[in-house]
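Researcher: Let's do a round of design. I'm pasting the structure tokens now; please hold your answer until I've finished.
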């Protein structure tokens, strides 16, 4: 099942956003973002002024994909994390299960060691949220019209009435 097959319900979004906020605080980071492997932002915490978050998410996903290609070329399945060190700002990327990528931007107020530690601590909880999403998708509770779906009570007749010309 791909990330595009998943539905992020309000409960999961609230849980994952809370985890991102906690990581931001505990790692003393400037910005935390959780994105899917397609480069779509899921949630974020903190700020990076004048930065297009959607473009940043897309570039981060491309970076992870390229690095996974490098890993396979040398016989590794994947590299679970990446670190980009700048003069004063740094980015740490970490895989969250098969679906997510966690990006942490930080500066001299934090350290790579602290960020790595805090990411390791929060990753199992984030993976649990993704597992819950996968489970709901597999059982059909996230399917349009499936049990528990907000579309379950909508009938074909309701749709026909919505688009009829009977003003």
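Researcher: That's everything. Go ahead.
Model: Designed sequence:
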């Amino acid at each position: 099942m791909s990330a595009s097959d998943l539905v992020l319900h309000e409960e999961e979004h609230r849980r994952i956003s809370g985890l991102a906020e906690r990581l931001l605080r505990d790692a003393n980071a400037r910005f935390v973002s959780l994105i899917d492997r397609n480069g779509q932002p899921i949630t974020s915490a903190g700020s990076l002024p004048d930065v297009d978050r959607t473009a940043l998410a897309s570039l981060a996903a491309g970076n992870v994909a390229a690095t996974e290609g490098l890993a396979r070329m040398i016989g590794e399945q994947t590299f679970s994390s990446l670190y980009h060190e700048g003069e004063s700002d740094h980015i740490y990327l970490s895989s969250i299960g098969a679906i997510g990528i966690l990006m942490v931007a930080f500066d001299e107020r934090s350290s790579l060691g602290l960020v790595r530690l805090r990411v390791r601590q929060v990753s199992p909880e984030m993976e649990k949220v993704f597992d819950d999403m996968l489970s709901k998708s597999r059982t059909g509770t996230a399917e349009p019209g499936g049990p528990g779906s907000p579309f379950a009570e909508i009938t074909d007749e309701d749709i026909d009435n919505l688009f009829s010309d009977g003003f």
